[in-house]
Design brief:
The complex is a heterotrimer of chains A (about 160), B (about 300) and C (about 775).
Chain A: E1 11-18, E2 21-28, H1 33-40, E3 59-62, E4 65-68, H2 74-77, E5 81-83, H3 96-104, H4 113-126, H5 132-139, H6 150-163
Parallel strand pairs in A: 1-5
Antiparallel strand pairs in A: 1-2, 3-4, 3-5
Helix pairs in contact in A: 3-6
Chain B: H1 2-5, E1 9-12, H2 18-23, E2 31-34, E3 46-48, H3 53-58, H4 60-65, H5 67-74, H6 79-84, H7 87-91, H8 104-110, H9 138-144, E4 148-153, E5 156-161, E6 181-186, E7 193-200, E8 211-220, E9 223-232, E10 239-240, H10 242-248, H11 255-266, H12 279-297
Parallel strand pairs in B: 1-2
Antiparallel strand pairs in B: 3-6, 4-5, 4-6, 7-8, 8-9, 9-10
Chain C: H1 13-18, E1 33-39, E2 45-51, H2 53-57, E3 61-66, E4 90-91, E5 97-103, H3 106-115, E6 117-122, H4 129-133, E7 150-158, H5 161-167, E8 170-178, E9 190-196, E10 199-204, H6 209-220, E11 227-231, H7 246-258, E12 262-265, H8 268-274, E13 281-289, E14 295-305, H9 313-322, H10 324-327, E15 333-340, H11 356-372, H12 377-383, E16 390-391, E17 397-398, H13 403-414, E18 425-435, E19 450-457, E20 460-465, H14 474-486, E21 493-497, H15 514-539, H16 549-560, E22 563-569, E23 589-600, E24 607-617, H17 624-643, E25 649-650, E26 653-654, E27 672-678, H18 700-712, E28 715-716, E29 718-719, H19 723-734, E30 740-741, E31 755-757
Parallel strand pairs in C: 1-12, 7-31, 8-29, 10-11, 14-15, 20-21, 24-27, 28-30
Antiparallel strand pairs in C: 1-5, 2-4, 2-6, 3-5, 7-15, 8-13, 9-10, 9-12, 13-14, 16-17, 18-23, 19-20, 19-22, 23-24, 25-26
Chain lengths: ~160, ~300, ~775
């Protein structure tokens, strides 16, 4: 083990496209997208539960597809479209999924909600009328400990109906 | 570049295997070499190593001609990881062990193991080797489908069968040169080959396999003309069940044949106490997953689910 | 009623679905330092020396502290003040905090932890109940309790148990084991502290701001008036954030030393070490019944594997024996409980606190008795159901009780009585009960358990309450009650909660107490406010309902000056006249009944749960959406415990402190759930409401095991029900051995002689005056 810590950390300037806004950040090259979103861009809506790719909590959309921000380096997603929970509502109008989650009680502690909402958004964009099994499959990488998943499934179905 | 940097550099494609391991300090490296340049193209029988597991699992051509491969890719981990993880990465995925896939602090408390920082295998302390488990879902299926990979390295390109990528050691589990990169996978596109992959794991998602059977076969007038059975997660490499393959040749898949094939296939499987659930139970389940996979490809009882 | 009983969205729903809710780790005040904690790599070791000099020299390190800086002991229960924020004398489990660093970033802090040298003298670890009962090889884990590593004994006898057994036609004994498991909240624990003008402020992911407040005052040796604790948005508790934790004290101390904000967020692995989860419990039960199935006497023994510290353990021990009588009418009852120390992370309260384990044992035990007597298990249970408005043999007061209705609802909906008989398919039934808040406080005092203030001006209503919303929706319950009384919508009500500076006390989100207790306090405060406003409006010659709320508030303020009201709730003093009677009494009990339908594969031992029907007597559903959410979440957690969740150890070490290997069910592992809300309108609950967050977990594991028996004819007497256990039980069945998997025996435990307690007088009933 090192007695002294090397502090000359390599930093890079990156132009990230987050929620349709391009922002330049200067970050250590090894910092994860999760950390950069939360700490350098103040987008703390993206949560974390394990930081090892095991729980799905930190899900964001990369070019519309769910990926785990704890397993991505910003340099890998430069130039690609990143969507976080902060980018889901249009102005002060909630996305239909957000409304449905709120109305049906699909968010209890709310900690897994950002990741699940984004995964569900991606699902509905590719499949407007998913069956319940398809919803389960699509969200199976996102753990929730509060809801037992029932209300989440109902909320995705409600949003899917409303979005048609 | 990789050859110049030596062991302090590693390749990364999707990062789903490497990054957690870096955080747990299972690898201590200075440089990661991105493989973004790898082709993501899914062609007739050739798939770029950069193609994501999600894309391959949903590709109509792959689903039609290499059903088992699409299944295996679609059963890896969970949806967000399949959107990042590549087929090349899954072929090279590190062997696993629940004494090894732990944080630095945990491993320090447990005592370091042979695979990282220590000098004994904590699963089999009297053994001179590492018994970490091959945990790829797609590698056994690619082997069963007669896959061939292209390797690109400092000394040029070469093609090797998928089977030749692996060796029976938990640490040196890859037989390729460290500086070589898998750039594509070609699957045998012979007509009428049926294939299926059955994966056993505790939960419906996220988990690595704790046993799995990849089966591919060509039938001739209802009889098995050619068959390959490769097991996942029961050894340090994808384990080909040669005795069962030979036994099945020329046979019709009836109850007794399938039962005997399962029994033969399970014999060489050697799960140890380093993955989820007990190794005794995992050993018993090998024949079950093999039978389920065989039924899935048989004419007689299609659609039996794993 | 206008808003009570309506399925309205939670008041914080929009914040939760937009990412706006601010959880503790989302806070990053300017100049925040990051804290990392060095933890013991040994399960049991004396600490001989700690050298922090190298760590202090690392650039970016601003402070390094050890136990010498925080020597005062604390603990949630006054009788077990056995924890230190940092231990400098002895490590008692892998993960015990030893030293802490505050540095400019997390990596520097981690490197500094690496640079701390600790010299240990390694001691023999004690890793099981049996080992703890024996003489220690080196030394005891704690220096109190005993003999050996026993922490606590309980022995109580109510009524004449021997006479009860003598009356029985049939007596049966069984042994059960319920493995430990953990809460696994999605949010890792996190706390941020500042020290400004001589005052500490702590934001934390806690269920109990008040108890954290007390522990900080004690350990930091500051008056409570100089400490402020604020509950941040909460990412899941389930009992796991109900103790004051080392990291909360550490960041406060580091903030005091550095004058800068300090944050500590536990890694997922550290969350497994913080634990305070479900105790592993070994149980032995003996019951006498008449030939038609009436219980004549019961003797229940428990042995709890407590881990290294006290935590809530004394209460947990009592709880393993307290609530058997709240569902079944047991005329004579003996309970002997024992908690031991082991070198594992401390156990504490997890959803159902100490009662899911005995509930599992008791329900299966009665199933087996019914099989012995060739009686229908549901009929046998049913004829022993406790009656509403009664007193149990251990003096617990039962008021409203919807057991009958809950049972009927799930039996009818599931078609349980008409179920198809087919090998490999099974259905199982079980019931349960749980507290609506503990009737006694954790530390003795005469003050209310919950207090609410309401401020009204210019049409605005603000409710102040110490209650902590942990996702269950307690803020919404407060808003709904106040809105109902004042004629508003819940969204019209502003809330200030869980802040020890600005809100009156509430003891916290544990023991399912908030709806009942804070709800009653809110009801009182709101009714007082309503009466002020009504008086002012009527003085102007009009009626309350004919004016706008804004107008009413202006009239009220003009007449009375500043409009405030307050309400509080103190539970009735209903505990029995014996030592230990403080654990078990509650102002009301919820009831649940459950049916599980599953397929069990005799070849693989794998179980596929097809559906769960659950009926829950919540008294009154103030918001049915939230009640359903609590019930469904409880079923989920119960299934996780029943099938896969396991806090397992190997060679002194947590076997798998990760979300990958600690198996938490995914979307694909969760069956359909059909929920029935039963309303019995409790006489003392707010609008009749009782608890919903814990009770519905309890019947799930035993119902699942009953269903496995129904499917395969084997008893799995041990939780979790893994496929290996199923196959082993089937193997034994085939060989003609007893067709079960479970602990073979219960150890010989030197319980003290039971304290004999006379049962309450027959005519005491529920409405009798307090004792």
């Amino acid at each position: 083990m090192k007695e002294e810590v090397e502090r000359d950390i390599e930093r890079v300037v990156l132009a990230l496209d987050v929620n349709d806004e391009k922002r330049a950040v200067l970050v250590p090259v090894h910092k994860t997208l999760l950390e950069v979103l939360r700490e350098d861009m103040q987008l703390t809506g993206t949560k974390h539960g394990c930081e090892l790719g095991e729980c799905g909590t930190c899900t964001v959309l990369i070019d519309g597809k769910p990926q785990l921000s704890c397993l991505l380096l910003p340099v890998q997603v430069e130039g690609r479209s990143i969507t976080t929970i902060e980018g889901m509502a249009r102005g002060s109008e909630l996305h239909p999924l957000q409304s449905a989650f709120a109305e049906l009680g699909a968010a209890q502690c709310g900690y897994c909600s950002p990741g699940i909402l984004l995964a569900a958004k991606s699902l509905l964009e590719g499949n407007a009328r998913p069956s319940r099994d398809e919803i389960k499959e699509a969200l199976a990488g996102n753990l929730c400990r509060c809801t037992g998943y029932v209300k989440i499934l109902e909320a995705v179905e409600l949003a899917s109906e409303r979005m048609r | 570049m990789a050859a110049d940097l030596g062991p302090r550099a590693m390749f990364v494609a999707g990062g789903t295997d490497l990054f957690p391991k870096l955080k747990r300090r299972q690898f201590e490296i200075d440089t990661v070499i991105g493989l973004d340049f790898l082709s993501r193209e899914i062609g007739d029988g050739t798939i770029g190593a950069g193609a994501t597991l999600a894309d391959v699992s949903q590709d109509e051509h792959v689903k039609k001609h290499f059903a088992g491969y699409a299944e295996a890719a679609g059963l890896v981990s969970s949806p967000p990881l399949r959107n990042a993880g590549t087929i090349g990465g899954n072929l090279c995925v590190d062997t696993r062990c629940n004494y090894y896939d732990m944080t630095y602090e945990w491993r320090k408390a447990a005592g370091f193991c042979l695979k990282k920082d220590g000098d004994i295998c904590l699963v089999a302390p009297s053994s001179p080797r590492c018994w970490a488990v091959s945990s790829s879902d797609t590698a056994p299926m690619a082997m069963a489908l007669g896959g061939v990979v292209t390797l690109v390295g400092p000394e040029g390109d070469r093609e090797v069968p998928v089977a030749a990528l692996y060796q029976d050691d938990g640490i040196e589990y890859m037989a390729k040169q460290p500086a070589e990169v898998v750039t594509s996978l070609r699957l045998d596109a012979s007509a009428k080959r049926r294939s299926a992959y059955v994966k056993l794991r505790r939960r419906g998602s996220i988990d690595f396999p704790i046993a799995g059977a990849a089966v591919a076969a060509v039938f001739d007038a209802g009889l098995v003309a050619d068959c390959r059975i490769v097991l996942s997660a029961v050894a340090s490499h994808p384990l080909e069940a040669s005795a069962a393959e030979a036994f099945l040749k020329g046979k019709r898949l009836d109850d007794e044949t399938v039962r005997q094939a399962g029994e033969l296939a399970s014999k060489p499987a050697k799960p140890l106490d380093n993955a989820d659930l007990s190794h005794f139970w995992r050993k018993r389940m090998v024949r079950v997953v093999v039978e389920q996979a065989l039924w899935r490809i048989s004419d007689q009882k299609p659609g039996l689910d794993g | 009623m206008r808003v009570v009983g309506k399925p309205l969205p939670k008041v914080d729903a929009a914040a939760k679905v937009t990412g706006r809710a601010v959880y503790a780790d989302d806070m990053l005040p300017a100049r925040t330092l990051h804290c990392k904690i060095l933890r013991s790599p040994h399960p049991h070791a004396r600490i001989l020396a700690i050298d922090t000099s190298a760590a202090r020299r690392i650039p970016g390190v601003l402070a390094v502290i050890t136990g010498a800086d925080l020597p005062v002991k604390f603990g949630i229960l006054p009788v077990t003040q056995d924890e230190r924020a940092l231990e400098h004398e002895k490590a008692r489990y892998v993960g015990d905090p030893i030293a802490a660093v505050a540095a400019t970033d997390e990596e520097v802090a981690a490197a500094a932890c690496d640079a701390i040298r600790v010299e240990y003298e390694v001691l023999e670890p004690v890793m099981s109940i049996n080992a703890a009962l024996e003489a220690p090889k080196d030394e005891r884990i704690q220096d109190y309790g005993g003999p050996n590593n026993v922490h606590k004994f309980v022995a109580l006898e109510f009524g004449d148990v021997e006479a009860g057994f003598a009356q029985a036609d049939h007596v049966r004994e069984d042994v059960f084991f319920y493995q430990g498991n953990t809460h696994l909240p999605m949010e890792q624990h996190s706390a941020v502290a500042t020290f400004v003008d001589g005052k500490v402020t702590l934001w934390s992911s806690t269920q109990v701001v008040h108890y954290v407040h007390r522990a900080l005052a004690k350990v930091l040796e500051l008056p409570m008036s100089r400490i402020r604790v604020i509950g941040a948005a909460h990412g899941g508790g389930f009992g796991g954030k109900t103790d004051p934790f080392a990291h909360e004290i550490i960041v406060a101390k580091l903030a005091m030393l550095t004058g800068r904000p300090v944050k500590c967020t536990l890694s997922r692995e550290e969350v497994f070490y913080a634990h305070r989860g479900r105790h592993p419990v070994l149980m032995w039960v003996r019951t006498g019944v008449t030939r038609d199935g009436r219980i004549t006497a019961m003797h229940f023994r428990s042995a709890l594997d407590g881990g290294a510290y006290g935590s809530y353990g004394v209460a947990s021990t009592f709880y393993t024996g307290a609530l058997q009588t709240v569902t079944y009418d047991i005329p004579a009852y003996r309970f002997e409980g024992c908690r031991v120390f082991t070198n594992k992370p401390p156990c504490g309260p997890k959803r159902g606190h100490g009662t899911p384990q005995p509930r599992f044992g008791l329900e299966l035990h009665l199933e087996k008795i019914a099989h012995d007597l060739s009686l229908d298990p549901v009929d046998l249970k049913r004829q022993n159901f406790v009656r509403p408005n009664s007193r149990t043999v251990n003096w617990l007061r039962v008021t409203s009780c919807g057991l009958e209705e809950c049972t009927e609802r799930v039996l009818t909906a599931s078609g349980f009585r008409e179920r198809r008989r087919k090998a490999g398919h099974g259905m199982g039934f079980a019931i349960s009960s749980y507290l609506s808040g503990a009737g006694t406080a954790i530390y003795w005092n005469d003050m209310p358990h919950s207090e609410v203030q309401i401020k009204v001006d210019r049409g605005g209503v603000t409710v102040f309450c110490g209650a902590m919303d942990i996702g269950q929706g307690s803020d919404s319950v407060l808003a709904t009650i106040v809105a109902e009384e004042l004629g508003l919508e819940p969204s019209d009500v502003r809330l200030v909660t869980a802040d020890t500076d600005t809100t009156p006390v509430d003891l916290g989100s544990y023991s399912s107490r908030v709806t009942f207790m804070a709800g009653n306090a809110a009801l009182e405060a709101a009714r007082k406010m309503r009466s002020l406003l009504t008086e002012a409006v009527e003085a102007s010659g009009r009626k309350y309902d004919d004016v706008s709320f804004e107008e009413a508030s202006v009239l009220g303020e003009a007449r009375f000056g500043t409009l405030t009201s307050a309400g509080s709730y103190t539970p009735p003093k209903i505990a029995g006249p014996y030592k230990g009677s403080g654990v078990g009494p509650s102002p009301a009990y919820s009831y649940s009944a459950c049916v599980v339908d599953l397929d069990a594969d005799a070849r693989t031992g794998l179980i596929q749960v097809n559906k769960v029907w659950i009926a829950h007597d919540v008294g009154r559903a103030i918001n049915p959406l939230l009640v359903q959410g609590q019930v469904e979440g409880s079923v989920y957690m119960g299934l996780g415990e029943a099938l896969m969740e396991e806090q397992a150890f190997r060679k002194g070490l947590h076997k798998w402190p990760s979300m990958l290997e600690y198996k938490s069910p995914t979307f694909l592992d969760m069956p359909d759930v059909e929920t029935f809300i039963v309303e019995t309108v409790d006489p003392e609950g707010p609008y009749g409401a009782k608890e919903a967050g814990q009770g519905p977990l309890l019947p799930v594991p035993p119902a699942l095991c009953a269903a496995v028996h129904d499917a395969l004819g084997i008893w799995i007497d041990e939780i979790p029900v893994t496929p290996e256990k199923v196959l082993e039980a089937l193997r034994r069945k085939e060989k003609g051995e007893p067709a079960r998997y479970g602990p073979p025996t219960f150890p010989a435990i030197p319980y003290p002689p039971a304290i004999k307690v006379e049962p309450p007088p027959k005519d005491l009933g529920a409405q009798a005056p307090s004792i």
